[in-house]
Amino acid sequence: MQIRVSHSTEYNYNIPIYYALQRLRLTPRSGRGQTVVNWQTDIEGARVEVTYDDHFGNLTQLLSAEGDPHMIRIIAHGEVVTEDVNGVSGPHVGFAPLWLYLRDTHLTRAGKPIRDLARAIPGKDPLERLHGLMATISDRVAYEIGTTDAQTTAEEALENGSGVCQDHSHIFLSAARYLDFPSRYVSGYLLMDDRTEQVATHAWAEAFVEGLGWVGFDAANGISPDERYIRIATGLDFVDVSPVSGIRHGNSTETLAVAITVEQ
């Protein structure tokens, strides 16, 4: 399947920016299950200071802006050919060791409710347990926009019983790590059946299974990723893969507008 993506992020300011520094993780890479046909990031109102691979292997750009701009516009767009690989993205590569992916973060710390959920997952086969974990989270946590935010922890989302894909992924990571599966957060895009315009990127989790490598689990939809998914970045939680993040100095007031189109 060939998927076309356009992802626009626009910041507007009421007065010129004194200084801003932004970090972008918006560029997919070719790998098992996806081949990047073309991709570029157009930037207006800021300049690229450096492009590098972070410690998780994500292609990262640093932008800076100062002085005159009242607006920063970032448009990432391109086409990716995908195939269904049953959620298996392949062996572990890169400088970050596997044991790092067992580490808790503030957003994925496993409290008693998550430990109880993890211990209740039946089976001994690793894949069976992980699929059971995904199904349990899908049943326990309803997909509801507006009930959580970017700072909501896995524990809070589980106790609330609702959240979005970020929350489903954090709960999965928290429980899977408690069960001794190295696990990582994945950001990307999902081609939906009923719409092309979207308001945010998608997220899911991957767990490392001996003999298979990294295997994806989208608890928000109750499936492993297929040919409708494009992977962008990976990390320990949402903070490590945020598409656009940064800091701003000065007294300007900021407004943000995001527009994403994903279509075949």
TrEMBL record:
| Name of a matching Pfam family | Bact_transglu_N
Q: Which residues form the Transglutaminase-like domain?
A: 157-221
Q: Which domain of life is it from?
A: Bacteria
Gene3D superfamilies hit by this protein: 3.10.620.30
Name of this protein? Transglutaminase family protein
Question: Organism source for this protein?
Answer: Georhizobium profundi
